[in-house]
Amino acid sequence: MTRWSVSEIPPQDGKVALVTGANSGIGWHTALELARSGAEVILSARTEGKGRDSVERISRELPSAHVRFEILDLASLASVRRFASRIGDARVDILVNNAGVMAIPKREETEDGFEMQFGTNYLGPFALTGLLMPALGRSKSPRVTTVSSGAANQGLRRINFEDLQWHQSYGAWKAYCQSKLADLMFAIELGQRTAATGVNLLSDASHPGAAKTNLQTSGPRGSMMGRLMSLMRFTFQSAADGALPTLRAATEKDAPQGAFYGPGSRGGMAGPPIQIPIPAPAQDERARRRLWDVSEELTGVRWPPSVVVSKLG
User: Fold this and answer.
1) What is the dihedral of CA 298, 299, 305, 309, to 10 degrees?
2) Using one digit for the tens of pLDDT, what is the confidence trace for 135-188?
3) Is the Cα torsion angle 32, 36, 39, 40 positive or negative in sign?
4) Quick check: is 130 in a domain?
5) Which sequence positions are flagged as catalytic?
6) Domain range for 63
7) What is the pLDDT of residues 218-242, one digit of tens each?
8) Is 179 in contact with 160 (CB distance < 8 Å)?
């Protein structure tokens, strides 16, 4: 079996790619390689300083790259709406929902009152993707790649609808697991809805395995989990390698609708990216549709009728 690498990325000339959380780690390497393959890249960051730094680093490596940044804070629905408004009449061919936070020790809330991990990792991308549907609709072959995690099959292994915002039973790891399961469920549900209604959009997902990024330390800061991850980091693959599943999901010509890509070695922790099975918790169709409905209510983002299907009886 061929070991997939960035050399396998098809030419992306003429395409516009938007990568969230591209100021460091997996997001930055995703933006870099998309730019290297010829795409015009819009990357998002939460601050102007981080955005400018990301663009400058890519430009130093690729002087001819077409890359710019926009401010986006996925923990603020107002910021999400402003970002989508700035995209305006542009075309987006590839949207990579990458940005996220991980295992925050004590429960925190977003600007809109959502539990921080669920709000940032899932509700923000859900709203953003919905608001960018007009821009995606201007593409001949739009694709949305959502970055999930192996954690989608850990924790409670279900969406905790009874305490969705973790007011009663917050735990850093199980809240993170729920947010990444929600990401994977969203990617699958979006793919099924578009396929069922004839909308020309491919939705898939990826997970990076265990990769050296600042996610493990900026989230679990000072916690036992953070200390454990710091000790284990020497066993992790690089952020560049961690970006490979996302890059394959975002660019592979014959990627199936709803496919899930992850590392193919060491129990899914490292190695070249391959298509992997969908974990059982994400295959719950009723839960996916319930989550979609709840997400519309919470975010106020109502998806176009073309990607809304009737509830299960």
Assistant:
1) -40
2) 999 999 999 999 999 999 999 999 999 999 999 999 999 999 999 999 999 999
3) positive
4) yes
5) 176
6) 12-301
7) 555 555 455 444 544 445 688 899 9
8) no
The pLDDT-based confidence of 124 (bands split at 50, 70, 90) is very high
Q: Domain for residue 210, yes or no?
A: yes
| The two structure tokens encoding residue 147 | 């970055």
φ/ψ (deg, to 5) at 275: -75, 130
Q: How many angstroms separate the CA atoms of 75 and 113, rounded?
A: 9
Whether 257 and 204 have beta carbons less than 8 Å apart is answered as: yes
With contact defined as beta carbons under 8 Å apart, do 145 and 95 qualify?
yes
CB 146 within 8 A of CB 211: no
Where residue 192 sits, what CATH number does that domain have? 3.40.50.720
CB–CB of 23/43 below 8 Å? yes
What is the DSSP code (8-state) at residue 122? I
How far is the C-alpha of 246 from the C-alpha of 26, rounded, in Å?
8
| Residue 54 near residue 23 (C-beta atoms within 8 A) | yes
The answer to whether position 66 is within a domain reads yes
- CB count within 10 Å of CB 141 equals 11
What's the pTM value of the predicted model, to 2 decimals?
Answer: 0.91
Q: Are 12 and 34 contacting, i.e. CB atoms less than 8 angstroms apart? A: yes
What's the confidence (pLDDT) of residue 231?
Answer: 41
Q: Would 277 be classed as within a structural domain? A: yes
* pLDDT reported for residue 227: 46
Least confident of 40-44, 90-94, 268-272, 302-306: 268-272
